[in-house]
Amino acid sequence: MEETIDVDGEKITGMAIPKGITVITGGGFHGKSTLLNALEMGVYNHIPNDGRTLCITDEDAVKVRAEDGRYVDAVDISPFINNLPHRKDTQSFSTENASGSTSQATNIIEAIGCGAKCLLIDEDTSASNFMIRDQQVQQLISTAKEPITAYIERIQELSAKGVSTILVIGGIGDYFGVADHVLMLDEYEVREVTQRAREIAGPREYQQAGVFSMDLKPFNWSLAAKHFGDRSKMSVRGRDELSVNRDAIDLRALEQLVEAEQAMMAGKLIGLQSKKALFGQGSLAEMAERVKEQLKNADFSDLFGIHGGLSYVRKYEWVAILKRWNVSVPTPPKGGKRHGRRY
After folding, report:
1. Where does the signal peptide begin and end (predicted)?
2. How many angstroms separate the CA atoms of 160 and 126, rounded?
3. How far apart are CA 8 and CA 248, in angstroms?
4. Could you write out the DSSP letters of every residue in 211-235?
5. CA–CA separation, 162 and 157 (whole Å)
6. Which among 190, 205, 196 has a CA at the least distance from the CA of 159?
7. Residue among 122, 147, 120 at smallest CA distance from 133
């Protein structure tokens, strides 16, 4: 749909993506992921007239993806994952080596738990068994034996709860049937093809029983405090890794984290909360909101006692970094090992 807005005193007319479920499709290399990347970066303010000011995204839009191997601590992923082998608890799911499906479920729950109003998802970086189960698989493997509730079975429920989805799809046509809008990229030009997509797919309705919990459990700050001594060291390796002493936190899956200074800001915030409880107590969602308000009003040099080297970080990336840090394991001595693995 077309909208006209005011940008730096100038009227700009262009494409607007409304709330709800939007599928972006098209052939390979026609611009689907490029458009999604523009939407990811549109959550930040940009210098006037640098071009990026022409793509504006709700600040509560979060890119989520599969993240094989990520650390997960006590997250309720039961809306998507249940009945795991060996009776593994999914209402308080923990692992040091998440699969593609459990990690994507975790990333969605954490984003929504912090207040995300729009999820940005690319089929290419998603777990295929998390996104959908086709008819042939359903015929061979009964629903009772499948622990994964595919995202397509929850997407309309999420939309009804006020959480939109913008989804890049190249090979899963079933999503046409649940989409409010379907956009097709053709040589980097956008075409509205909703009606044709609905004719091809037909309407699809998914009904899910039960409570959809999206609460984030409190973080164990007392354990985190043990990692921050008077001589604790913090460093970043580009935007890919934050280290607290010798604890390395992998940030590569946080695609809306754009520079190392944001990672350092997140580390400083975690350190302040661990040592001084600067942002109070309570749930992670409540604390994340207080951090957001504090950063809006604070002078960074007053807050951290340093000048330069820090950039504003959203609450979503701040919590995502915190939740990827395994504070339950003490930092090993230099040259030591953790869980029998070389560190």
Report:
1. none
2. 23
3. 41
4. ----PPPPP-HHHHHHH--TT--EE
5. 9
6. 205
7. 147
Which of 194-203, 210-219, 249-258, 264-273 shows the highest mean pLDDT? 249-258
The DSSP secondary-structure symbol of 313 reads -
Average pLDDT, the chain: 86
Contacts of 202 (CB under 8 A, 6+ apart): 177
Q: According to the model, what pLDDT value does residue 7 have?
A: 75
CA distance 234 to 197: 50
- Give per-residue pLDDT as tens, 310-342: 888 999 999 999 999 998 876 555 544 444 332
Q: State pLDDT tens for residues 189-246.
A: 999 999 999 999 887 766 554 556 677 888 888 888 888 876 778 899 999 999 988 8
DSSP states of 236-300: EETTTEEEETTEEEE-TT-TT--SHHHHHHHHHHHHHHHHH-TT-SS-HHHHHHHHHHHHHH--H
CA dihedral for 211, 255, 70, 148, sign (positive or negative): positive
CATH code assigned to 2-201: 3.40.50.300
Question: Which pairing describes strands 21-26 and 247-250: parallel, antiparallel, or unpaired?
Answer: unpaired
How do the domains of the chain map onto residue ranges? 2-201, 221-342
**pLDDT greater than 50 at residue 73:** yes
Query: For residue 19, what are the CA distances in angstroms to 29, 181, 224?
Result: 26, 10, 38
Provide the terminal-to-terminal Cα distance of the chain, rounded to the nearest Å.
52
